[in-house]
Design brief:
By secondary structure, this protein is of the alpha+beta class. Helix content is about 25%, strand content about 35%. The protein has a single domain, classed as Alpha-Beta Plaits (2-Layer Sandwich). It contains two helices and five strands.
């Protein structure tokens, strides 16, 4: 099973990204972290873990976030595949922040180990 720390290290290998084993207290552009989504028992000895991996983008404007995301999709996807994560899906997402504040634009990768 791939660990949070392994995912964080793979994310940190991508230029401009700082990986964390869980969501950091301050979510800034370039912060990235895994979140456990579910575990599926395949049989008594085998399990498949699904992860969500979030990569925070600049929140300055929609256009800035789109351009930034376009450059990260391939690099982050390859970094995650290189450590053995499969079934990768990436989509635009928003990370909720404090009440009354705008959510932070992120990429959300869904992956299976």
């Amino acid at each position: 099973m791939i660990t949070r720390e392994e995912i964080a290290a793979a994310l940190s290998a991508v230029p401009g990204i700082t990986g964390y084993p869980s969501s950091p207290s301050a979510i800034v552009a370039g912060a990235a972290w895994p979140a456990w989504a579910q575990t599926r028992w395949l049989n008594v000895a085998a399990r498949q873990v699904q992860w969500y991996i979030f990569v925070s983008l600049s929140s300055g404007s929609h256009e800035a976030s789109v351009l930034e995301a376009d450059g990260l999709i391939e690099a982050v996807g390859v970094a995650l595949a290189d450590i053995g994560l499969g079934g990768l899906i990436v989509e635009p997402w928003f990370w909720a922040t404090e009440p009354g504040q705008q959510p932070t634009a992120v990429l959300r990768f869904t992956a299976f180990d």
